[in-house]
């Protein structure tokens, strides 16, 4: 069993270095995409400070993101591509860091406690599979170090998981 390590009081660079090792341990012996997303969302939720939601949305037919494995309060189930932070990240095919979600045009408020957000698209062979979405009750919670670390986590998930059967 993989346990979420206590990574508090570390620099963000060291934090993500250790977190990525944990993600590699999760996915190295398990190829199921859904199982790996579930464990990674739990690892992120219990390892990252000052967050209130961590999880995945999966791109499905009709150009919609559908709620996948997550940790936190119940969330929006469907988000159209181009809508909200998640749908915009898919549309732009790039990671979005939103310091204040209340100022983001078209923000979809799933949890009124959320004030900032980071969304990382999951791209494999130019195909978007979905997004990793993390919310925080703090304003300005996420920065480029978070972006680089979370993009590496998504890269590790996609490299070692069998997403073709999900």
* Biggest pleated sheet: 6 strands, antiparallel
CATH class: Alpha Beta
The CATH topology comes to Beta-Lactamase
Mean pLDDT score, rounded?
Answer: 91
The CATH superfamily name is GAF domain
SSE series = HHEEEHEEEH
Please report which band the strand proportion falls in: under 5%, 5-15%, 15-25%, 25-35%, 35-45% or over 45%: 25-35%
How big is the Rg?
Answer: 15 Å
Percent helix among the residues?
25-40%
Distance between the amino and carboxyl termini: 23 Å
What spatial form do the alpha-carbon principal axes imply?
Answer: globular
Structural class: alpha+beta
Number of structurally distinct domains: 1
Q: What is the CATH architecture term?
A: 2-Layer Sandwich
> In order across it, which strands form the biggest sheet?
3-2-1-6-5-4
| Total beta strand runs | 6
Concise summary:
With 166 residues, this protein is α+β, with helices and mostly antiparallel strands.
Give an overview in words.
With 166 residues, this protein is α+β, with helices and mostly antiparallel strands. The chain has one domain (12-165): GAF domain (Beta-Lactamase), CATH 3.30.450. Helix content is 35%, strand content 25%. The chain has helices at 12-28, 33-47, 84-92, 144-160, and strands spanning 53-60, 64-72, 78-80, 96-98, 116-124, 127-136. It has a six-stranded antiparallel sheet with strand order 3-2-1-6-5-4, with helices on both faces. The radius of gyration is 15 Å and the shape is globular.
């Amino acid at each position: 069993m993989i346990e979420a390590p206590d990574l508090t009081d570390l620099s963000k660079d060291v934090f993500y270095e250790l977190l990525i090792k944990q993600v590699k341990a999760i996915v190295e012996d398990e190829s199921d995409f859904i199982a790996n997303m579930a464990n990674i969302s739990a690892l992120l939720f219990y390892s990252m400070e000052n967050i209130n939601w961590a999880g995945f949305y999966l791109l499905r037919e009709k150009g919609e993101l559908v709620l996948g494995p997550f940790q936190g309060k119940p969330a929006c189930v469907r988000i159209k591509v181009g809508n909200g932070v998640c749908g915009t990240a898919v549309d732009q095919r790039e990671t979005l860091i939103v310091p204040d979600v209340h100022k983001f045009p078209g923000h979809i408020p799933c949890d009124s406690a959320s004030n900032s957000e980071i969304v990382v698209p999951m791209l494999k062979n130019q195909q978007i599979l979905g997004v990793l979405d993390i919310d925080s009750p703090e304003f300005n919670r996420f920065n480029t170090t978070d972006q680089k670390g979370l993009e590496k986590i998504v890269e590790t998930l996609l490299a070692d998981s069998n997403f073709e059967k999900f």
